[in-house]
Automatic annotation (TrEMBL):
Cofactor-binding details, from the entry: Requires a divalent cation, most likely magnesium in vivo, as an electrophilic catalyst to aid phosphoryl group transfer. It is the chelate of the metal and the nucleotide that is the actual substrate.
Keywords: ATP-binding, Carbohydrate metabolism, Cytoplasm, Kinase, Magnesium, Metal-binding, Nucleotide-binding, Potassium, Transferase
Name of the protein in question: Ribokinase
Binding-site residues for substrate, renumbered to this chain: 11-13, 39-43, 140, 251
Species the sequence originates in: Paenibacillus azoreducens
InterPro entries, sorted: PfkB_dom (IPR011611), Ribo/fructo_kinase (IPR002139), Ribokinase (IPR011877), Ribokinase-like (IPR029056)
Record note on quaternary structure: Homodimer.
GO MF assignments: ATP binding; metal ion binding; ribokinase activity
PANTHER family hit by this protein: RIBOKINASE, SUGAR KINASE
Pfam families: PfkB (PF00294)
UniProt record, GO biological process: D-ribose catabolic process
Subcellular location as annotated: Cytoplasm
Role summary: Catalyzes the phosphorylation of ribose at O-5 in a reaction requiring ATP and magnesium. The resulting D-ribose-5-phosphate can then be used either for sythesis of nucleotides, histidine, and tryptophan, or as a component of the pentose phosphate pathway.
Length: 310
């Protein structure tokens, strides 16, 4: 079974709930606080593990308390941490998230050690990368590392998926080596200028990506579903209707997509699987804790009578 390589971020999330979002300069007393190990790379690797596949997670943390905790948490989740660098040059990535009464999230990310991942670090793990079937990258780590990983993966015949988050980090340099681009509505708007409100808008955006040289894309449209686009065929995959309690789901979607592609399924089959896993995820709390296991996904499919349509 081919492994899945993930070059992505590790961030400690410091989440605070407050009734009213503070105005500039104001001090407010919060209602609740929690500190969680997060980051897009770590979350996607957790999804891969829970779905029964083995991730090769390449990332970087600081030599601080948060770095120690991060590695312990990843190890407890069954993730091999031997490809994670510890750098004395910066702190472990930190995200401060403030959630107000309307459930709106306001965030500040200090990427720290994530930006210390270098092209040489990637080259040091060339052998492990070459053993994988799929490479998944996002843009929360240093661009030189992302580009080096994508180049190496392309040369070695891996399928390369890029989740262009955060959208501000995207450059043509970075997407050139991708086989499959998986933006959400905001990232699509940022990259194409197209506001995605309908299937037609999504199709227009996918055609725009094709003109840029990215033939395959999945335009994720939240609770509506996703457009899966290839030059010869496209399909809109509707989301599975569920009672959502936590819609942070992007890394679960990309992890599940990578798992299915690594098994040799085509893009439509893989996106359908990712749609099912994502629906189950949004019914559970926690960006990482809420990610379902393969057994739970199979039970959900059975209970809902969901059968592979492609
Ligand atoms: N409320 C929901 N109910 C069911 N499925 C959902 C819901 N929200 C998202 N999904 C599924 O997850 C997929 C990805 O969601 P979304 O488009 O929000 O990605 P994202 O914006 O990258 O993730 P995030 O919002 O975590 O950044 C959707 O295409 C859909 O299949
Ligand atoms: Mg979203």
């Amino acid at each position: 079974m081919k492994k899945i390589c993930i070059v992505g971020s590790l961030n400690t999330d410091i989440i605070m709930q407050t009734k009213k979002f503070p105005t500039r300069g104001e001090n407010t007393v919060g209602q609740n606080a929690v500190v969680l190990s997060g980051g897009k790379g770590g979350n996607a690797a957790t999804a891969v593990c829970r779905l029964g596949k083995e991730p090769v997670l390449i990332s970087s943390v600081g030599m601080d308390y948060y770095g120690d905790t991060m590695l312990t948490d990843l190890t407890e989740s069954g993730i091999d941490v031997s490809y994670i660098k510890r750098t004395p040059l910066s702190h472990t990535g930190l995200t401060t998230i403030i959630i107000d009464e309307s459930a709106e999230r306001t965030m500040v990310v200090a990427p720290g050690a994530n930006m210390q991942l270098t092209a040489e670090d990637i080259a040091d793990h060339a052998h492990e990368i070459q053993q994988c079937g799929v490479l998944l990258v996002q843009l929360e780590v240093a661009e030189e590392a992302v580009i080096q990983a994508m180049k190496l993966a392309k040369e070695s015949g891996l399928l390369v998926i890029i989740d262009p988050a955060p959208a501000e980090g995207i450059t043509m340099q970075a997407i050139r080596y991708a086989d499959i681009l998986i933006p959400n509505e905001q990232e699509t708007k940022h990259m194409t200028g197209i506001e995605v409100n309908s299937l037609d808008d999504a199709l227009q955006a996918a055609e725009y990506f094709q003109l840029l040289g990215i033939e395959k894309s999945i335009i994720k449209m939240g609770h509506r579903g996703a457009l899966v686009y290839t030059p010869s065929k496209w399909q809109f995959i509707e989301a599975v209707p569920v009672d959502a309690v936590d819609t942070v789901v992007g890394d679960t979607f990309s992890g599940a997509l990578a798992c299915s592609l690594a098994e040799g399924n085509d893009l439509f089959q893989a996106a359908w699987f990712a749609t099912i896993v994502s629906a189950l995820k949004v019914t559970r709390l926690g960006p990482r804790d809420g990610i379902p296991t393969m057994a739970e996904v199979e039970a959900f499919m059975k209970a809902r009578n969901l059968q592979q349509p492609y």
